[in-house]
Amino acid sequence: MAKSQGAKPQELAVQEKKELVSKEESTVPARYYVQNTDIYETDDALTVVMEMPGVEKKNVEVNIENDVLRVEGRIDFAKYEGLEPLYTEYNVGHFARTFTLSNKIDRQQIAAQLNEGVLTLTLKKAKEAIPRKIAIN
Amino acid sequence: MAMLFPDSYGTFLEFQQALDALRTSSWLEPSISSGGAFPPLNVFRKGDDIVILTELPGIRKADLQIQVKGRTIRLAGTKPVEYGEKASVHRRERLAGSFDRAVTLPVEIDADRVKAEYHDGILALYLPRAERDKPKTITVA
Prior knowledge:
The structure holds 2 protein chains of 2 kinds. By secondary structure, chain A is mainly β. Chain A has a domain of 90 residues: Immunoglobulin-like. Chain A contains no helices and 10 strands. In chain A, strand 3 and strand 4 form a beta hairpin. In chain B, a hairpin with a 2-residue loop joins strand 8 and strand 9. The chains are: A mainly beta, B mainly beta.
């Protein structure tokens, strides 16, 4: 999967979309896909970069519940109305993916940005728990 | 979490199934100059015209090159994936690189009226069918 980030650009290969396998069953019949994601860590933050082509800002939902980060992006199906498929090479669907967070992440400081179909989440690390010294009486 | 779908009766699933059903079609033939198979294309018909959609997330408009000649369309560009300095990568699924693909449509298009739009990582090409290629109705005298 991984490609080196050398100076000379590599030829891009087609990445088949992965369908989401969820523990819960959905009540709506449409299929979900898993967005391609990069995660990298810097000194003060963890950055999650997700490819969600076709998803508008208003249709992105990011939430954290029980240490699980869930990102969902829905495509606007209305845009495909009146279009009759002639030939297809990829499928279209909503995106959803979840990640378990470590307790090093400050839940209050999460920033999100959507540009050109790429969602960037910046998760700030929590200030290291200050070591407590317990005095013995 | 409440989600309201305008298509609660499964029209979206029907659409997804239609997209899957056409994946073995040989409608779009690669031309001699065709490079790789990236980006994957979906071709639609809208009235008389052809609409080509492709997912190009993370590509800047300036890095995208579109050429039309006759009935051949060429899409070329580069996709950057950058991590900051001193970043340790935990997961890497997005691919960076260049692409160059040319496809030949089985119908005549009006190259002068081709329109391209890029929104939210999706490139849409609107290819009007050439007037001379449209079927003529012949009435039996």
